[in-house]
Amino acid sequence: xxxxxRTIRYQYYQIKAKEINKSKAKDKIFxxxxxxxxxxxxxxxxxxxxxxxxxxxxxxxDFNTTSGTWGIRIFKLRNTNIPSKAKDKxxxxxxxxxxxxxxxxxxxxxxxxxxxxxxxxxNRLSLGISRIEEFLEETYNRFVVEDEKVVVSIEAILxxxxxxxxxxxxxxxxxxxxxxxxNFVADDDRKSLGTLMTPLKNIYGVNGNVKISLGRSGLDTxxxxxxxxxxxxxxxxxxxxxxxxxxxxxxxxxxMDVEIxxxxxxxxxxxxxxxxxxxxGLVFTTTISAMNDKLxxxxxxxxNLIEYKERK
Length: 312
Hints:
By secondary structure, the chain is of the alpha+beta class. The chain has helices spanning 32-41, 129-143, 160-168, 191-202, 224-234, 284-305; strands at residues 3-19, 28-29, 49-51, 54-64, 69-78, 84-85, 93-94, 103-111, 117-121, 150-156, 170-178, 208-213, 243-251, 259-262, 269-277.
């Protein structure tokens, strides 16, 4: 059997949930065990599940008693824009799907239920972070709860080096990409974002992009207090639906080069190389085991970044 090597990138996040019917509700760690139990009780494993305008299928999910983590494989499903298969010296043929068949693009996730840390595969063709967030929230509210609906948030765990750079640098340029502007409501938790988004909303904008720079003003930095507040608000889970991209151009010292910090992509990450059988693809147990090994080695570092203290 032919094998090939593939290096896969993973990023670290923390998955939280908050009850939306309680005004003073605090973010809690997402209750993964309760969610997957409801999925299994409703006989939804290996079944196409509709959410918003997409479909997903939970292929497999297991709990590892040694690592104390959940491992899950989720497919993004589609039956449109079907590719073709080609053979030398023959016409290419569109892949035919039967009724109820889909093409699937998978991702693997490892989740620690105590600290909420999740290691999530990055794959441009499968479910992205926002879609995973939507999937968990939609299915949790549909199959788990009755009255107390929750908002699920997947928060990036930013590299500590990136955080410290932002605190001690001058700010030369800020670019923010907005989405869902029509649903945005300014309040005390997003005053700075409100100064940028409200005018866009007033002209019926839905998506938008704002670039702010010093130009030829001769100033050393943008307003540090305002930029730091913007950065804080951008990082809030409740604002993730409105801010899709955010890049900050910084300079630490006069004799140093200008550097761009991506507030969404400068996330703690991991690379794992696999030897894959071309006829089988990634194997669940092998993949989850490799992910758990990496997560275990960085557990203390990640818990420090999210300021989680493990109970003894």
